[in-house]
């Protein structure tokens, strides 16, 4: 079956712009979470959605936001981009939002802010 | 304090040898899950193996096994008969279930860069 799909794979944005990243989870999975990976900070949890509701949020400023649709697809948005937002953004999906469910990741979206 | 500690920033291993990647964790939650992921240079995070805190037996998935020592808060990944394609970054991660029953996001270690030499 199809895995977690993220689009776009690569993008370049200018400081001050905004960006929207998309994630389609594995069919049947209702929990979607987002992570940021940078060389300096490593992998950090952004937020998690389950049944269109944000369940958890990491320690990121309000410029980072997300949403989940009724078909479980999710988008994350970063407004007023800063150079430090350059990162690999990874989306993950699982059946439900409990620790007993295996979490699968997509290939990620590489964002470069110039 | 770090919740996930991976003490080996890099490792060089001969092809066909077994590899053990270290991971220790810190949590006060009795219920949690431990994960290992492989990340090649392409960036995709590939799920390898999962161990629940209440699982009695060590998890195994093909050539991967998890040496789970709960009292020592250790969850080492063992790769048997290493292959050239195993060269990648490897991340240990934990997901805790809070007192309210909901699970938190994954907390990752800093990773181990494994290089398999022919």
Describe the overall structure.
The complex is a heterodimer of chains A (114) and B (118). By secondary structure, chain A is an all-beta fold. Chain A has strands at residues 5-7, 10-13, 19-24, 31-38, 42-50, 53-57, 64-68, 74-78, 87-94, 104-105, 109-113. In chain A, strands 2, 4, 5, 6, 9, 10 and 11 form a seven-stranded mixed β-sheet that branches. In chain A, a hairpin with a 2-residue loop joins strand 5 and strand 6. The radius of gyration of chain A is 13 Å and the shape is globular. The N and C termini of chain A lie far apart (37 Å). Chain B has 118 residues and is mainly beta. In chain B, 0% of the residues lie in helices and 49% in strands. Chain B has no helices and twelve strands. In chain B, strands 2, 5, 6, 10, 11 and 12 form a six-stranded mixed β-sheet that branches. Chain B has a four-stranded antiparallel β-sheet with strand order 3-9-8-7, with no helix packed on it. Chain B has a two-stranded antiparallel ribbon with strand order 1-4. Chain B starts with a strand and ends with a strand. The model of chain B has no long low-confidence stretch (mean pLDDT 92). At the A-B interface, strand 5, strand 9 and strand 10 of A face strand 5, strand 6, strand 10 and strand 11 of B.
How is this fold's topology laid out?
The complex is a heterodimer of chains A (114) and B (118).
Chain A: E1 5-7, E2 10-13, E3 19-24, E4 31-38, E5 42-50, E6 53-57, E7 64-68, E8 74-78, E9 87-94, E10 104-105, E11 109-113
Parallel strand pairs in A: 2-11
Antiparallel strand pairs in A: 1-3, 3-8, 4-5, 4-9, 5-6, 7-8, 9-10, 9-11
Chain B: E1 4-5, E2 10-14, E3 19-21, E4 24-25, E5 32-39, E6 46-52, E7 60-61, E8 64-69, E9 74-79, E10 88-96, E11 107-108, E12 112-117
